[in-house]
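Hi R.,

Here's the chain you asked about this morning:
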Amino acid sequence: MHIFVSTAMYDYETTLEAMELVESVISQYDGRVGMDIPLLVHSPEYQRMLQQKIPDLRPYPISVKSPYLGSEIIAPKGTTEHHKLIKNCTYAFFMARMLGSPTLTLRTQDQIVSPDSQQSLNPNVFENLEALSYLGRQCNITLNIENAGGNSECCPMFNADDFIELFENFPEIDCVLDIERCIKEKWNLPHIVSTLEDCIVAYRLCNLGNPEDPFALSGRNLEQFFNLYRIYTPDASLILEYDYKPGCTSLDLRHSIETLIQGIGRIPDPISPFRNAHAGMRWALQKV
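And the predicted structure, written out as tokens:
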């Protein structure tokens, strides 16, 4: 279990600034707090910067976030969009290995999906996930799926029941649960967490657009989340995704990290050797 602080800001300059701020904070935690890194495949400048920083990031736990903005798992096979998806994810699996991350997290969608097209797109999703999961296993990288889209107005690709069924169909894939998205879609959080307890490897907690609520939870809801975490997923990691634009400081980040540590009632684990255990083990046991 680790706590990760995300540097996802979707453009080169602000992401670089966020990375420097995050590194100044996580360096105080002796390898127990790490960095969640987006792969901005549309920015050659960012990719060059990230490759140059690989040696500096080795002391920290790293998680890698999907190569979004042009990488859609709804893309039909044989299309330009599908070629881009496979190309970008191949690069993403390579970068995950270079950065020492045992996982790659892919979001369910980025483009706007209409309610009328949801069901017709599902076969594309299942076919692509099968191919990407296989590609990840060849790289010894676990593929995680997150219930999130890049556009706040997206019609979600899956409702809660469909999202749960996804992991029944793909036991080799694990779940990153975006709490803000669960609340927005009015999902039953206790039901989701208790049902997917063997699949959830991390939670994403966002304050994007709402600096007053750094966890997309407040008061009673935050305590409910901590209770669910302790009961069902005490080994899951936590990813803080901050809106840096209003003037986020290192004190803000450190306060949030300490609040999470106090809420879950445990100290994060120190960095361990490169491994790919959770989903792979669950998948292997089901194959026996």
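The longest strand covers residues 142-149.

Let me know if you need anything else.
M.
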